């Protein structure tokens, strides 16, 4: 068990560019979550998947954001036409959901995005 | 909607001092409660949790008790070490068992 991994760890981009982040959950975890954390704040929920189905999206997730989990394993989060306000740490978490499961969410190290 | 409020930091302590970080919540139903810790340069790690009223979570000398009557989940440690310096986040998971709602975090600095 290698834990949740995220790539890249850091991304610097210019305003208006598109960026894509990847998250690899703990193997066999059926749920995958995306959160955003700005400096000095707690993480805020963006969206989550159960297997390949995206079950909930926060109102924070504007039309410029899209997330996928095509085969129910890794997930990608894409931000189109980035804005300076998108600068944040993007966190991924995974959990094992189901009867009798603890459903504890385990977090990856995050991808820090800076939009210039 | 659900919300979590925790005391603002930074909290500065001397080694072996007693630590308390207050956390209160607002939620419908019966949420599960968590404390996560973020050490410098590292990701969020689960510290402890409690899933029902009066449960006590404990780990690494830290404790927190789920108090439904006061909607609180205060974190305590009797004798802190320099290695406990970190940012601590209180969080709840809604009754449906889905997303986490976090407080704003409390930075703790323990000096030798």
Topology:
The complex is a heterodimer of chains A (116) and B (112).
Chain A: E1 5-7, E2 10-13, E3 19-24, E4 31-37, E5 44-50, E6 53-57, E7 65-68, E8 75-79, E9 88-95, E10 106-107, E11 111-115
Parallel strand pairs in A: 2-11
Antiparallel strand pairs in A: 1-3, 3-8, 4-5, 4-9, 5-6, 7-8, 9-10, 9-11
Chain B: E1 3-6, E2 11-14, E3 19-21, E4 23-26, E5 32-38, E6 44-50, E7 56-59, E8 62-65, E9 75-77, E10 86-93, E11 100-102, E12 106-111
Parallel strand pairs in B: 2-12
Antiparallel strand pairs in B: 1-4, 3-9, 5-6, 5-10, 7-8, 8-9, 10-11, 10-12
Describe the structure.
The complex is a heterodimer of chains A (116) and B (112). Chain A has no helices and eleven strands. Chain A has 116 residues and is an all-beta fold. In chain A, the strands form two sheets. In chain A, strands 2, 4, 5, 6, 9, 10 and 11 form a seven-stranded mixed beta sheet that branches. Chain A starts with a strand and ends with a strand. In chain B, strand 10 (86-93) and strand 11 (100-102) form a beta hairpin. Chain B has 112 residues and is mainly beta. In chain B, 0% of the residues lie in helices and 51% in strands. Chain B has no helices and twelve strands. The interface between A and B is medium-sized, with 23 and 20 residues.
Keyphrases for this structure?
heterodimer; A: 116 residues; mainly beta; four-stranded antiparallel beta sheet; 48% strand; globular; B: 112 residues; six-stranded mixed beta sheet; 12 strands; 51% strand
Number of helices in the DSSP assignment of chain B: 0
Strand content of chain B: over 45%
Helical amount of chain B: under 10%
Counted beta strands of chain B? 12
Oligomeric state as shown:
heterodimer
- Name the helix and strand elements of chain B from N-terminus to C-terminus, one letter apiece: EEEEEEEEEEEE
> What is the ordering of alpha helices and beta strands of chain A?
EEEEEEEEEEE
Question: Which structural class do you get from the secondary structure elements of chain B?
Answer: mainly beta
Helical element count of chain A? Answer: 0
The biggest sheet of chain B amounts to:
6 strands, mixed
Q: Kindly report the average pLDDT value of chain A.
A: 93
> What coarse outline of chain B follows from CA principal-axis ratios?
globular
Low-confidence runs of chain B (pLDDT<50, min 5 residues)? Answer: none
Q: Which structural class do you get from the secondary structure elements of chain A?
A: mainly beta
Shape of chain A: globular
Helix content of chain A: under 10%
Radius of gyration based on Cα positions of chain A: 14 Å
Number of strands of chain A: 11
Estimated radius of gyration of chain B: 13 Å
Considering residues with a beta carbon less than 8 A from a beta carbon on another chain, report the largest interface and each chain's count: A-B, 23 and 20 residues
């Amino acid at each position: 068990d290698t834990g949740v991994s995220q790539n890249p760890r850091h991304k610097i981009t210019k305003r208006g560019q598109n960026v894509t982040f990847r998250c690899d959950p703990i193997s066999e975890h059926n749920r995958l979550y995306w959160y955003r954390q700005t400096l000095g704040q707690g993480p805020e929920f963006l969206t989550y998947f159960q297997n390949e189905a995206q079950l909930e999206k926060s109102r924070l997730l504007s039309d410029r954001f899209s997330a996928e989990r095509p085969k129910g394993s890794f997930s990608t989060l894409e931000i189109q036409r980035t804005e300076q306000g998108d600068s944040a740490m993007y966190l991924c978490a995974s959990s094992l959901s189901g009867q009798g499961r603890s459903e504890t969410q385990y977090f990856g190290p995050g991808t820090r995005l800076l939009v210039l | 909607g659900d919300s979590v409020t925790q005391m603002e930091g930074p909290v500065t302590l001397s080694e072996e001092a007693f630590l308390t970080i207050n956390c209160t919540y607002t939620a419908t139903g019966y949420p599960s409660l968590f404390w996560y810790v973020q050490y410098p340069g590292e990701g969020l790690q689960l510290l402890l949790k409690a899933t029902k009223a009066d449960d006590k979570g404990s780990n690494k000398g830290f404790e927190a008790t789920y108090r439904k009557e006061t909607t609180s989940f205060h974190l305590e440690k009797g004798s802190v070490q320099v290695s406990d310096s970190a940012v601590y986040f209180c969080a709840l998971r809604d009754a449906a068992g889905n997303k986490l709602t976090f407080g704003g975090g409390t930075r703790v600095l323990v000096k030798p």
